[in-house]
Design brief:
With 108 residues, the protein is mostly helical. The protein has one domain (3-101). The chain has five helices and no strands.
Length: 108
């Protein structure tokens, strides 16, 4: 398989996996979305999903696609202003960019 086909297949697999991760927030109330294990330094479900999306954006769009990506690591783990609806909206914008950007055909 040519490299661009392999990259597109990988991006498709990652996007399907991330879509399932985003769906894990469905049906949870805000308290459940912000739940953290009872240990120091743990992250909420919202923060984990936000971090996974940001990591994907950086790795697929920037590394594979060569696009400019700005990332705010601190904001990824601050769930005070995050909601499942906002995460889903972010995913809906990222998914098509990840598919096209993985092949270097996106425009940023």
């Amino acid at each position: 398989m040519p490299r661009s086909q392999e990259t597109a297949a990988l991006a498709g697999f990652l996007c399907r996996s991330l879509g399932r991760i985003v769906c894990c927030l469905d049906g949870l109330d805000l308290e459940e979305q912000r739940w953290r294990p009872p240990a120091p330094g743990t992250n909420s479900l919202l923060a984990i999903v936000a971090h996974a999306l940001a990591n994907t954006e950086e790795n697929i769009l920037r590394l594979l696609g060569g696009l400019a990506v700005e990332r705010d690591y601190t904001a990824e783990f601050d769930d005070r202003d995050q909601t499942a609806a906002a995460i889903r909206q972010q995913w809906m914008k990222l998914e098509p960019r990840a598919i096209t950007g993985s092949c270097g055909s996106g425009s940023g």
